[in-house]
Write the structure tokens for this entry.
Amino acid sequence: MEEIFQEIEQCLGEMIQRQREKVLMIAMRFNPSITRDDLFNPHDIVELEQSGLFNFEDGILAGLMSAQMALRANVFNKRRH
């Protein structure tokens, strides 16, 4: 079971990293001076707030991160009990 968890964790981590890069590249098309830190508050950048493409891809990133957190919480809870 531990090995499966590690494989899933690694896969999700890689997917999240690729999606973060994709979101940053899309954001930089709208504003080349955007930094990774700016993406923590994209609603502060009008071009990003109004972009359906950016919001769609950012939503995929949020979903992947939620899946990773749910997996970790599930495994953590099983280890505690």
About this structure: The mean pLDDT is 92. Residues 2-76 form one domain.
